[in-house]
Amino acid sequence: MAQARVKARADRTAATARTARRESVLAERFAVFAECLLTGVWIAVAALPLVTYPAAFAAGARHLRRRTAHEGGGWREFVADFRSALRGGWLAGLLGWAAAAAVWVNVQAVRAGLPGGPLVGAIALFALIGLVVAGLRAAAVWRPGDRWRSLLAEAGRRTVLDPAGSFLLVSGLAVVAVSAWVVVPFAVPVLGALTAAAVAVEERYRHRHR
């Protein structure tokens, strides 16, 4: 009889422990999700000068990497990372806007009915999407001291060699676009989720190619 009571208490203790573990896992995942949304707001604010968006995404990605690694860090660390990434990131941002302008010119050529316009416009649009994905992948692995030229070159190769991960990021970009189309403010926190997706894609690629 005594053994039965002891076993019953042990079973109840084990069940309580399992429940606590499940609740802690759910709480942690919700906390990470909330952190992603907050990081999206930080990224949007840091990207307001337009050419600073690569540095903003890089700082946001590093913040999320610290968060998932259970390391300390908050707004001050984000700002410090943003300033560090901005040293070469502003030029990457400027080149990104130049690429977007080139695509806009090609779209206007398509609308004007110029010969070969649709083909050139489609190629330019796909190239722009590839550049955006490569930029996200570069930002996801940025660390202080890294050179953006090298980061973008390596990210471009990963964009081609890892089509599944790149497609995931294209889907994330579509979610941001739809969110902005429905209600513009919705796109702001979604930027954090997109950054988290880029970090996850890079982690997946790194583990598969050790």
Descriptive notes:
- With 210 residues, this protein is mainly α.
- The chain contains seven helices and no strands.
- Helix 2 crosses helix 3 and helix 3 packs antiparallel against helix 4 (117-141).
- 30% of the residues are buried.
- The model is unreliable at 14-21 (pLDDT under 50).
Tally the beta strands: 0
**Radius of gyration from CA coordinates:** 22 Å
Largest sheet: none
Q: Specify the number of helices.
A: 7
Query: Percent range for helical residues?
Result: over 70%
List unreliable stretches of 5+ residues: 14-21
SSE order: HHHHHHH
Query: What is the terminal separation in angstroms?
Result: 56 Å
Basic shape: globular
What is the average per-residue confidence, as pLDDT, rounded to a whole number? 86
Q: Give the structural class.
A: mainly alpha
Q: In terms of topology, how is this protein built?
A:
Blueprint: H1 2-46, H2 53-68, H3 75-112, H4 117-141, H5 148-161, H6 163-182, H7 187-208
Helix pairs in contact: 1-2, 1-7, 2-3, 2-4, 2-7, 3-4, 4-5, 4-7, 6-7
Short précis:
This protein has 210 residues and is mainly α.
Please name the defining characteristics of this protein.
mainly alpha, single chain, about 210 residues
